[in-house]
Amino acid sequence: MPTQQEQHSIQAWSLINRKYLGKGIRVKRFRKPSRCQIRNRVLLAVLMANDIKLSQLAEELGVSSRSVSAWVYEGRIPGKKNLDKVCQFLGYPHHILFNRAVTVNSPIICQPSSSRFMRRTLTRSPVDNKILTGLCMVHDLSVSDVSEWMHIHPGTFRKWLHQGTLPSPSFQDRAELFFRIPKFILFADCILHDS
Questions:
Q1: In this protein, which residues make up the domain named HTH cro/C1-type (predicted)?
Q2: What is the pLDDT of residues 21-58, one digit of tens each?
Q3: Which of 32, 75, 87, 170 has its Cα between 20 and 30 A from that of 22?
C-alpha cells in the first residue's frame, strides 16, 4: 500500500497527465523554412505566385508530397516523366524551373535590412511576371524596399510585376545582381509572352 507521500505524488502526476497529455501533442504541420533552406527558389516562387501548395502540386502530378518538397527544399531534379509533367502543368520550360546553376548555387540574397511583402501587390491588379513576384514573396520583400535597394523608382518595379514589361539591359543586370538569378529566368514571363 502506497504511503501518504507516494499517493499525493501519484495524484499530482495524474492531474498533470490529464491536463497536458490528454490534449495531444501539438506539432506544426509545416516547417517554416529559412531562406538558406530553399534550394529551388524559382519553383517555389512560381508556386507561391499562383497560390499552389506543395501538396496540391503533388496531388495534381500524382507524386508524393515528399518528392515535391525535395524539389523545392533540396534542389533535386525530378525524373524525365515528372519533369515534363511539372513543366507542362506550370507552363515553363525545364531550364527555367529546374536550372542546375540556380539550385546548386542558391545563395541568400543581399537584402540590406528586413522587409515585408505587401499582399496588395497581388490584389491590386493582375500580375504578369509571376517569377519576380513570387521571389518577392519567397524572400518577403516589399516593392518599395526592393526598388530602393536596386535604385529604381517603385513605379518602374511595379510595371515589371504587373505589366510584364521587359526592362532595359542595365535594369535587368541590376535585378540579376540583387536576386542572384540569371535575367533570362527573372524575366522569363516577359520573354515567353513576347515569343
A1: 43-97
A2: 555 545 444 455 554 478 899 999 999 888 899 999 99
A3: 32
Q: Which three cell numbers stand for residue 27?
A: 506539432
Q: Which long-range contacts (CB under 8 A, 24 or more apart) does 149-155 make?
A: 149/111, 149/112, 149/178, 150/174, 150/175, 150/178
C-alpha cell at 165: 514589361
Tell which phi-psi region holds residue 62, choosing left (phi > 0), alpha (psi between -120 and 50) or beta.
Answer: left
Angstrom distance (rounded) from CA 144 to CA 152? 9
Q: How many CA atoms lie within 13 A of 93 on its CB side?
A: 9
Q: How confident is the model at residue 183 (pLDDT cuts 50, 70, 90)?
A: very high
CB 143 within 8 A of CB 154: yes
In this model, does residue 75 exceed pLDDT 70? yes
CA distance 194 to 7: 79
Residue 88 reports pLDDT greater than 90 = yes
| 122-138 confidence digits (pLDDT tens) | 656 677 889 998 888 88
Is the model's pLDDT at 144 over the cut of 60? yes
